[in-house]
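Deliverable D4.2, example record:
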Amino acid sequence: MNLSFYTASVGAWQQQERLNVHGNNIANVNNYGFRAKRPVFSDLMYDFIAGAQADELPRGTGAYMVSADTDFSPTGFADTGRAMDYGIEGEGFFALWDPATGDYSYSRDGSFTMSQFMLRGEDGQEEAHWYLSDGLGRFVMSRNGQLVEVDPEHLDAELPVGIFDFVNTNGMQSLSENRFVPVEKNGQLRVGRGKLVQGVLEQSNVDLANELTKVIESQRSFTYALKMIQTSDEIETTVNDLRR
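Output generated by the structure prediction step:
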């Protein structure tokens, strides 16, 4: 089969992947703290790509989406009036600790609440303490790397919520609930330079007009790729008929 068929089929497949990225961005346009994804493509002139049948498509068969990079550019705030809502003005993340796994993750979503955590006292008895959390079993870390304790009698008090950052944020791995974890190239954790703002939540940085434009581009590119597949198939059919 001629190379144009492979080029068109890879093109249709990868435009579908691109469409999924933009569709997910649009679905999260009103999700506080959401960071938009940007599809990144690379040509197959020098690279191979695994096909649907676990084969490798040859070099020169179009382009494929190598990653969906996260856009960490800042955006505006929504004033909520809740004392336990926080936003970051500038760069940085909130650090979340999961006591079930001991893992840390990082987020721009500062929609917090208070959760109970049991600690063993000096007398060996467990005592209940209230700490700032994301409401999903993870606790927010303070500026000194400790849990942020909340006084139920003074909920309006500003808490020492920590802001943390990395030398390079490109390529951070995305998790659920608008969370991220660093990879090796992100470097060591450091204190963030952003400013903590209480009573607000950072809005999604999705540009709806831009995303809709990209969706139309993806749909048209997908259509053109399918037409190319059809034309390629017709050429092969004609050649085979001439051989008979």
